[in-house]
Specification:
Radius of gyration: 18 Å
Low-confidence stretches: none
Number of domains: 1
Strand content: 35-45%
CATH architecture: Beta Barrel
Mean pLDDT: 89
Shape: globular
Structural class: alpha+beta
Order of helices and strands: EEEEEEEH
Number of helices: 1
Distance between the termini: 44 Å
Length: about 110
């Protein structure tokens, strides 16, 4: 399972304003569902990621017996592909927010109907 996000900030060990204990890169992402996450960036694309990129984060399980997700940025989408993915997910989220789920529905007490 993969989730799209938009890069807000990249934290690279090469940045002068970042003091790092290791050589890994992280990215702060605004996810399609308005969550804000900071995730590890796969080292193979760490030098290519930049602000405003649309990326895919790998949410598949770490292992078959470990339900925790990997939570790693594994792909950078570009051009029309990136625009289309971001637009589709955001439209889906907007529609979901407009329709209250049964858990969100306001319950009116019996005596007030």
């Amino acid at each position: 399972m993969f989730h799209p996000g938009k890069v807000l900030t990249v934290f690279s060990p090469d940045d002068k304003d970042v003091h790092s204990a290791d050589g890994s890169t992280q990215a702060m992402l605004l996810m399609w569902d308005e969550n804000l996450l900071t995730l590890q960036v796969d080292p193979r694309i760490a030098g290519k990621i930049k602000e405003e990129d649309v990326v895919l984060a790998d949410y598949s399980p770490v292992a078959s017996n470990v339900p925790a997700p990997k939570m790693t940025v594994t792909k950078i989408l570009k051009g029309e592909n990136a625009d289309r993915v971001w637009k589709e997910y955001k439209e889906h989220f907007k529609k979901r927010k407009e329709k209250p789920s049964s858990a969100q529905a306001v319950q009116v007490p019996v005596g007030y109907r």
